[in-house]
Amino acid sequence: MNHVFYKGEDSSRPTLLLLHGTGGNEHDLVGLGKEIDISANILSVRGNVLENGMPRFFKRLAEGVFDLEDLQVRTVELKSFIDEAAENYEFDRDNVVAIGYSNGANIAANLLFEYKNVLNGAILHHPMVPRRGVELPRMSKTPVFIGAGKNDHMCPATESEELQNLLQEAGAMVELYWHAYGHQLTQDEVQAAKQWYQLKF
Ligand code: MLT
To answer: How far apart are CA 110 and CA 74, in angstroms?
Structure first.
């Protein structure tokens, strides 16, 4: 997968896996990653799917309607990519924290839905419930931050709460942060995520 890797100064810090929103690329969230943890490794990836020229992490049938078969295939692909990157760049595979926005948050959530111990934590900015009616692997207190908007047309408040509940029932420790706006990522939300991250990692 197209990506950039920046080695952090402190190898005891997590590796931040950055996953952009629709139409983004591997460079978009690097500044955000450095804002969250200046000393961490950064592994920022570009989604392999193109929708009218816009990179995404998996196909969709319509806005907010996922192609579940493709989501499955792409989730396997991303998991293998992380495993290989950990060997190539020699970072601790057990200490990867995902930071995703929108489509990137959705595939990060699906990694958690699919695989036990795939991430040591996740910051999900404006995620949706990736799949329903599936059994989640047990998560041993995996810390998860969800940033949501009270007026997010893409993701109603009930959906953010549903995702929080599903992850919590599987054993994750979820913090749900609300802002009063829509699908956008605000500075206040980033600062809330940073404070949360500093307490957990
Ligand atoms: C998705 O397809 O992942 C969601 O609709 C969010 C987005 O627009 O990327």
So the answer is: 10
